[in-house]
Amino acid sequence: MIELWIPITIAAAFCQNLRSALQKHLTSKLSTSGATFVRFFYAVLPAWLYVWFLHDFVGLEMPDPHPLFFAYAALGGATQIAATALLVYLFAFRNFAVGTTYSKTETVQAAIFGIVILGDPLTAGAMVAIMISFVGVLAISAAKQAAGIRGIVLSLTSKPALIGLASGACFGVSAVSYRAASLSLGGEGFLIQAGFTLACVTIMQTVAMAIYMRSREPGQITAVLRNWKVAAVVGLSGMAASACWFTAMTIQNAAYVRALGQIELVFTFAASYFIFKEKSSHMELVGIGLVVAGIFVLLLNT
To answer: Whole-angstrom Cα distance, residue 3 to residue 259?
Structure first.
């Protein structure tokens, strides 16, 4: 029997892929911060409606939050914003692809932070699976630049690589913090735990980004409101993706969830090949094959 976190994670990766595609459409009308703000601002209402539905119609008891919950939620929200900001900063560098590749160490770092913060066990087989998938991601990234894998490895101490590692660390801390926040609520209803955590984090992130944009990018909030039709769909798809991520990470080790979530790369590859008729190099095909192999090994070991 398939464990529940598996289809939930696959749904999360699919919804995230959809959200990313819609966000790209908004970048021609909004700044990078504005397009990022959309995913939080327009997700607040759907997130709380989801919690209300779980409480009033499903009959799940509303969690009783406490200081530790808010500490983990705030840490998760802040590190997610920091991770995204670091990724955006990478685009200012000529060899930003190197840094982006190192940001993909998120899964490995999430495994380490999960052990340190929550004591989440990690089997040897799962660790092997995570490393196989990472090598696959490395191959996909190497296929897109002339230097190849050797160039990526030799660039380990470069500024973009270090920024990428910092971004991956922030994403890893964020994932583990969200899991810790949900689990700290206790109770038997993992759906309401995850939903309530998502709703609270979304408000925190919306307020933080609104304050930043008001002071640093005046006019962008108005632009976000003006483009509400597409932005609302982005927020809804983003909320659906986040709800699935939070739920899966409440059920299962965050590192396992993020590792399986790399199936998003397979969705992207399939769309580019079958819909946009884009050709892929042998290195990219090898990379996708390794990602899929890593996912299979992970599932066999969990």
So the answer is: 15
